[in-house]
């Protein structure tokens, strides 16, 4: 049974009668669109995530993040210079996100927009968003703007693999409308994740889009293990270069 099939089985078992549509997004990923009219309480929502070695996951993070940061340093400096020359503003964008167990931290990104939203109102980027700079469009499509988060990983605030952290304002809103939303914060947020390699990357224009992303994130939190992380890492390049909704 594939991971996608296991996920579909778990969701349908936990949400009786749910209408689950398997929508292939490319050869390597599949998206599930789940009716927002259904309320999902995961079968294991009262259980802690499966036991795993936090030390081993931390070691994997450092084994990947430290060499990548060193090897990519010249490239990152070049990107920073291009960002600075392209538009007025700082090279880096920092925004408050909620990490594991809701602990706030400042996420690092290359600045890709002309605004620096970090308050009670944060407007999600959308297609043809005029707030995005010329260079920012390329950075966001290729996810290069996320590379500074290697610093967050080294600091222990994030993991290489985990649920993508949302803006604090979005977390506070969705916690009130999506049951079990906070379960996704039972693990460290990641640079890439189970939702992203299954087509849920970028904008979530409809409630069902966020519901589907949360379903994937909660499933990951309840099945977290190093083998799953390695599988997600293996397909991440295909999700980045063959995915959609990245703007």
Outline:
By secondary structure, the protein is of the alpha+beta class. It has one domain.
What brief labels describe this structure?
alpha+beta, two-stranded antiparallel sheet, two-stranded antiparallel ribbon
Description:
This protein is an alpha+beta fold. It has one domain (3-17, 52-242). It contains seven helices and six strands. The strands form three sheets. It has a two-stranded antiparallel sheet. A hairpin with a 5-residue loop joins strand 3 (92-98) and strand 4. It starts with a helix and ends in a 5-residue tail after the last helix.
Helix content: 40-55%
Q: Per the principal axes of the C-alpha atoms, what is the gross shape?
A: globular
> Biggest sheet, open or closed, and with what strands and sense?
2 strands, antiparallel
Radius of gyration: 18 Å
The H/E string reads: HEEHEEHHEHEHH
Global mean pLDDT: 81
Distance between the termini: 33 Å
* Low-confidence runs: 17-52
Total domain units: 1
Order of strands, main sheet, comes to 1-2
Describe the secondary structure blueprint for this structure.
Layout: H1 3-14, E1 20-26, E2 29-34, H2 54-86, E3 92-98, E4 104-110, H3 134-142, H4 150-154, E5 159-161, H5 168-177, E6 190-192, H6 207-223, H7 226-242
Parallel strand pairs: 5-6
Antiparallel strand pairs: 1-2, 3-4
